[in-house]
Amino acid sequence: MILKILGSVSPYSKGDNNCVGYLTYDTDNNQKILLDCGNGITSLMKFPNDLEDLTIIISHLHKDHYADLSAIAYASYVYHNLSLLNSKIKVYIPNSKDLEDYHYLINYGTENYMDFYVYDEKTNLNINGMNVSFYQTQHNIKTFAMNIIKGNIKLSYSADTGFDETISLFFQNADILICESSFLKHQKNGNMNHLSAEEAAMIAKKSNVKKLILSHFWPEINKLSYFNEAKNIFKNVEVASENKEYILKRVYK
After folding, report:
1. Digit-coded pLDDT (tens) for 44-67
2. How far apart are CA 62 and CA 57, in angstroms?
3. Which of 44, 46, 43, 62 is nearest to 54 (CA)?
4. How does DSSP classify residue 49?
5. Other CB atoms closer than 10 Å to residue 51's CB: what's the count?
6. d(CA 195, CA 199)
7. Residue 48 preceded by cis peptide, ω within 30
8. CA distance 177 to 159
9. What is the rounded distance in angstroms from the CA atom of residue 46 to the CA atom of residue 8?
């Protein structure tokens, strides 16, 4: 499995940094899963190849996590009409029918080559051999963390969440945890909907993950500040950097 960082900041893109998005490739086949698609992430996707056999999973309906979905929708429509996209893109959205954004997304109209589905915390997906499960996080709208498991490889994504020690059970023993770190600890001021870099490191340590990738940074703050705060608690930590790729492979003797 290959993980590619498409975006790392929120709530707006700046310079070479896009809003959040993480693309996984199954190296055994052509299957791809895109976890969130914030502003600007399409600039780092390879069209039309990345659209074929693509599943998009939106963690929650805040626009910094799905703004580029409209660009992907229209691209899918154009490439399909040019006979360059054969399979419909599958899009999974949290079951939040009370939200206006939900109706907007489901009713994109005819200018897309997509199928839309809803999910909740009980949903388990098998996407061509990659198993996806969900955990509802502590956030101000319905939001879901995710695990992707393929064989003995586990990739975890926190999405947006407040500090919740029980989430460590969900992430337990992950090869990589992509974890939000919206704040430095002196900025928290009691915020219950997001993590500091210190709290992300605490969750990674309790979860016994192999590697922590911090993400969801404030665009005006140097990423090194988040790294320095987290590394005091969890040593194998990196900051998400656009266009960087990771190979997830576990070898047993």
Report:
1. 999 999 999 999 999 999 999 999
2. 13
3. 46
4. G
5. 24
6. 6
7. yes
8. 11
9. 18
